[in-house]
Design a protein that fits this description.
There is one protein chain. The chain is mainly alpha-helical and about 270 residues long. It is built from 10 helices and 2 strands; from the N terminus they run H-H-E-E-H-H-H-H-H-H-H-H. It has a two-stranded antiparallel ribbon. It comes from Modestobacter caceresii.
């Protein structure tokens, strides 16, 4: 005779896969999130590529330079912005409280979020590369540059995802999340060399940008889209890939610590 105790619970792997599927379905069902997260960087590439059609030197077009920045901005949107706003909304509407009260391991929730970020990031990068090649003749990385592209994007995405989870706790509720996160993300994009050459950013703002991961992610991605001759225009006169890896890895650790210390399953209660 089978009793309740005899029934085994699903494995953690099965729960994580199920949760990842739920996260992906929920994301793609939210038209506003899909349009903003997937289409915003595409619109940026189309508009800036059409308006700023000039050469920077060494036979490099602005669009070739901008490709690295818009991919970095797309990764930031899919990870930090998407996580911060989405989690704050789920906390505010009671979704997180409900999940915390189920037998589901809490780790499965975060695995689902990471898988969502990964899938959305791959989609954004693929769309941007196709548009860049088809409409603006952007030269793709070659050989070992693809490996650099992969680890810079992966480390940058991981750092921004962890920061997004941590930043979600700054918003008082879901309604204020977008107003809290979006301005910060836009400022970081402006000072990190996303919309124009980083060498044109005032020196003091370059110093501020260097504190955050977006600047380093964009710099690492520029190394695979631009010729080595343009490395001289970087603040250190080189791509500094070793430092890019170090800073992004440090932000992964910092983000993880902040997540552990600040994450909440319910909104703050005003007293």
């Amino acid at each position: 005779m089978t009793t309740t105790e005899d029934r085994s619970l699903p494995s953690i792997g099965s729960v994580c896969r199920t949760r990842a599927g739920v996260e992906l379905k929920e994301f793609f069902r939210q038209r506003e999130s899909v349009v903003f997260t997937l289409m915003f960087p595409v619109i940026l590439l189309l508009v800036f590529g059409a308006v700023l059609d000039y050469e920077l030197g060494s036979g490099v077009s602005f669009t070739q330079y901008f490709m690295a920045g818009v991919i970095a901005a797309g990764i930031l949107g899919a990870s930090l912005q998407n996580m911060a706003i989405g989690i704050a909304t789920e906390r505010s509407d009671g979704t997180l409280k409900g999940l915390a009260g189920t037998p589901m391991p809490k780790s499965a929730y975060f695995v689902g979020k990471v898988v969502q970020v990964l899938v959305v990031t791959v989609a954004i990068v693929a769309i941007l590369l196709v548009i860049g090649v088809v409409f603006y003749d952007v030269d793709l990385p070659s050989g070992a540059d693809w490996l650099t592209f992969a680890w810079v994007a992966a480390l940058g995405s991981a750092a921004c995802t962890l920061l997004g989870i941590a930043v979600s706790s700054l918003a008082r509720n879901g309604r204020s999340a977008s107003a809290t996160v979006t301005p910060v993300a836009l400022v970081l994009q402006f000072i990190s060399g996303v919309f124009f050459q980083f060498s044109e950013v005032p020196t003091w703002l370059q110093t501020v940008a260097a504190v955050f991961p977006l600047k380093w992610m964009a710099q690492g991605l520029r190394s695979v889209f631009l010729p080595d001759a343009l490395a001289a225009q970087e603040p250190a006169g080189s791509w500094e890939l070793g430092r890019v890896a170090l800073v992004l890895a440090i932000w992964c650790v910092v983000g993880l610590v902040l997540c552990v210390r600040t994450f909440r399953w319910q909104d703050r209660v005003d007293r």
